Amino acid sequence: MTYLIPHLEVKVNGAWRDLTARSDLCALAGASVQWGTSEIGKQPEPSVLSFTLRDLHGELAANPTWLTGRAVRLWFGPGHTVVFNGIIATGLSVKPLHDGWQVRCTATSLMVLWKRLRDEGPTSDLSNNLKEQLHWNVRPADRVAEMNRRAEAVGAPQIVDDMPFNISSKNCIMPQLKGEYPSQLTLLHDSFMDYSLPLWYEHPDDNS
Q1: R_g (Cα) of the chain, nearest Å
Q2: Cα-flanking dihedrals φ and ψ of residue 116, to 5°?
Q3: Interatomic CA distance for residues 108 and 71, integer angstroms
C-alpha cells in the first residue's frame, strides 16, 4: 500500500522551504483544509488551511510572525498533489509544551486576492446613453479576460473558463454603477449566476 505523506511548504526568498518532519525548523503536527460551501446555491469563499507546527528548539516560537504573510502550500506525495495554495494570515498562536512549543496558524487561499481587487472596471459602447454612469458593462468574454489580467498582475489564480460552465458564453452584461466597486470575487459570483451547479471551485494544483 502506498501512503500519502503531507508536506507543508512556505516560500522564503522566492524558494519553497519544506516544514515537515525532516525540517530543521519545525515539524508538521496536523493540518485541515476547509473549502466549498455548506449551503446549496451559495458560492464558496476562499478555502482556509488550519495547521499546527511543533517547534522543538524555540526558534519559530520566539518569532512566529516570521510566518505571517508568507505563501504556503500543502501537498501530498508520492507525486505532488497540491490541496492548498495560499497566504498565511495574522493571529498565530504559540503554546509551550513539555518538549518544545506548538505554533498554530491559519492561511487563506490565493482567491482572497480576488476579494482585494476593487478597481473600476472597463466600459463599453453597448449603452451609450448610460456610459458615464456604468462600468464593467462589457461582454462576458471581455470581463473574464480583464479579471484574469488583473489577477495575474497580483499573483492571483486565473479563471479557466471550461465546461460545464463556460461562463464567457453567458448572455449577461451585469453592469455596475460608477461609485460602486465590488470585489472581483463578488463580480465572479454575481455576474455569471444562473441556476446550474455552483459557479467555481479552486484547483490549486494548477493555480486556477
Answers
A1: 20
A2: -90, -15
A3: 10
- What lies within 8 Å, CB to CB, of 113 at 6+ separation is 151, 154, 155, 156
Pairing of strands 48-55, 27-34: antiparallel
Name, in order, each residue with C-beta under 8 angstroms of 68's C-beta and a sequence gap of 6 or more: 88, 89, 90, 92
Q: What is the pTM of this model?
A: 0.81
Q: Per-residue pLDDT tens for 161-200?
A: 664 456 655 556 678 888 889 999 888 877 666 555 556 7
131/54: higher pLDDT: 54
Q: Are 26 and 17 in contact (CB under 8 A)?
A: no
Rounded distance between C-alpha atoms, residue 23 and residue 202, angstroms: 28
**Surface-to-core class of residue 91, CB atoms within 10 Å of its CB (0-12 exposed, 13-18 middle, 19+ buried):** exposed
In tens, the pLDDT along 79-88 reads 888 999 999 9
* Cis amide leading into 164 (omega within 30): yes
> What one-letter code names the amino acid at 41?
G
User: How many residues are recorded in the chain?
Assistant: 208
Q: What is the mean pLDDT of the chain?
A: 82
